[in-house]
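Figure-free illustration: sequence to structure, shown twice.
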Amino acid sequence: MGAGRNHYDALDDYTSYSLAWLAPILYPLTLAIVAQGFVLADVFYSNAGRRFLPQMSFLSRAGDDSGAKSSSRVPRMDPRLNLAALFIMVSEIIFAVCCIVQCSINYSNRAFVGTSTACDVQAIYATYYVFSAIGLAAFGIILGWRVVSVGDKAVLFKTSSICVAALLIHAVALFVALLPFFGLNGWMFANDYCMFDIEGPLYCTLFLAVYFSAVLCISFALVQTRLAVATAPMGSAAPKRTAYRLLAGTSFYLFIAWILTVVIAFLWIANGEVYGSSLWRIYGAQAIILHSNQLVTPLLFGWFWRHAMQAVLLSSEVDSAEAA
């Protein structure tokens, strides 16, 4: 076991389990990549005022033909919504593609191919994913709040603001993933995969700080969104109310999706060990739940969020025209 690498001595004895083709290779990774492809196609089509994916009935605004076919002409999607959704999806796509390749190779060989080097690579992209995904999800909720509250005039909704904020989140997450190269501890082999060493003071503290900071920011954004909905003009009240419900539901999912990692962190704080204890199977559950994000998050932000925010913007334009 090298410096900053925890439980790497178990890599030589690792044998891929027989149902790895089912979980995580088929579900959720294969399904996730298919879903991501559909969402990316919808983003591409929407730039030309067309739909690849249908707009769900609960997202339809008054006067919009929610029953239109996916090829029907619709108002062109605001490019800033597409841009924000793509930034949020980047880490999900990277994680899904890298994991399905590495998991398939390991399953085919019934071993952890590449041992410590491959484990390092996986730990880097897994760590980048965790810290970027939490930050980007919070960014999406906050951006949704600003669109509902201020609409097209929101400073955060400027193209430059979206790019700077999203790129900063990605850059910080990558830097955090590379901390072991600076002599800081470390990465770990967690039963079937490699990740940041959550059973160590550095990454445990960083993860909990990022998670609870995101929870606070999201909670504040939801409260402010609810207040904006309560004072919305009649024409935009319904789309804004729907957008708020979507943001609240998305926030609840994100809380559930990451809570098991929080539990692992607190178990380590309380007991001093998780991987080497009777609770080691929790890492397997964590892997499936986190991989489910690659399926769910693109649908939430790349499909539902985009259409909900678009409905808010269109209804706000109607309110402005009527006021004039």
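We now fold a second protein in the same way, so the two outputs can be compared directly.
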Amino acid sequence: MADILASLRSLMTSHSPPLDALLVPSEDYHQSEYVSARDKRRQFVSGFTGSAGLVLITKHEAMLWTDGRYFLQAMQQLSDQWKLMRIGEDPSPDVWMPDILPREAAIGVDPWCVSVDTAQRWERTFAKKKQKLVQTSANLVDEVWKNRPPAESNPVVDHPLEFSGRSVAEKLKDLRVKLANEKARGIIITALDEVAWLYNIRGSDVSYSPVVHAFAIVTTNSAFLYVDKRKVSSKVSSSLQENGIEVREYGAVSSDVVMLASNQLDQAMRVNSSQNGVYANKVLLQQSPLALEKALKNPVELEGLKNAHIRDGAAVVEFLVWLDKQMQEIYGASGYFLEGEVANKKRLETMKLTEVIVSDKLEGLRASKEHFRGLSFPTISSVGSNAAIIHYSPQAETCAELDPNSIYLFDSGGQYLDGTTDITRTVHLESLRHMRGLAIPMFLRAILLWAMLDFLMEQTVMLLISWLEFLCGGPHQISFRPQAQNVPLQVSMTVTDEPGYYEDGSFGIRLENVLVVKEADTEFNFGDKGYLSFDHITWAPYQIKLIDLSLLTPEEISG
């Protein structure tokens, strides 16, 4: 890491203008939270492998900002050359940079890796101290990254109508109506999941996400897909052409945006505000209309999602039964489902269950199910104190062995052709401490409250549950790429409930289900505004012996 920092500082000095600081975001050219190996620039520079974080390198310091999900992980992975800045506890980048960096400092960033909103906010913040945000002509990290992974060459595939529920032609027609309403000539689509959704294509360019590295431009009378043409087979190309979509090389998007915007004086191009690198003169910076369209599941997608969760739930139950038997045979533990006394067996020293072994077993059970295409994220398989690391990822060489006297937490999901799953369960295979016995019912209560909740349409929902400290990411949407959305919930949207509690160095507890928003059947419909509620679609049991029913109300017990 020392050599990397030294090389970057040398490039900062020789840059025109010279840079006093360099920002290295986590995101790729599409503002993706989860990126390909080739785009893990922040990880390469810092050694921190979490999905969220911002690096700032100055002439004498190197800092990483990240959120509560990753505090423990960052402390373990950062070398002594780095300073961890805890979001919510330490000064934010917007506060730290103008106060600490020299007056009139030049702060560099690759414009493709930062949103327009963020770049403009930084420019306003820096202007107070006459500091300047400098858009580097090249990514400085790429220039020092020897043996950088090559670009992905995975093929683009069609996503059949039997799973998508809507044709490309229908989606393009609806999008063009929205463009006409905005008096916009076209739209540049930068988010990978939105490109895949609009054109009904899938790929494997990013681990755990069936997306393709591509941009899209749709105008009132044309449509383009910007992608490495070598990935597009003649079959897929013909399918795209049938829908009026022209395939162009990935790198042509920037010049095409400028050309399209400049050729139409009285109309603008609509650009998602998340993308700074394609910013042209004649643009409307707005939230992409596809984000909401994609979040509203059509009947085919909802049915597929429910079916995927049934199959996925079967795999999880099979896993819990297998784990139950293994723990009894190897450790003599009382098991996941059993409430009886500890089995009178001696532990077989030649057999071990590690975090990786049980994680691989769960993946294998999922792989046996119809339409399975891979995991939806790296499985969090964590024992004891590792469960306090919210996004812990076990490694075969260093992972822990399952201990019947410790908590075991697994957070996992699958990518199926008809839907994406995400589930978390916490189990204990022997005796419990008081706090742990209390925490599980508290989190189960949080989940039950979501299930029983009725709320007004167009209302943003936020629940505050008990006094326990929640550091987990909170509810997020489920599609083929989960992402957080702070928008009013609507019928057919999907979200997760994910309460968690963590004691550093001791244990972690979390439960998680997927919910579908539906119309609520209320008795009075007060105000005649309409009410919504949630429908759980995750099928996997909770560990009964971890639940103290005396802490739940009769309504919560009955469901």
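Summary for the second example: Residues 380 and 393 are 6 Å apart (CA to CA).
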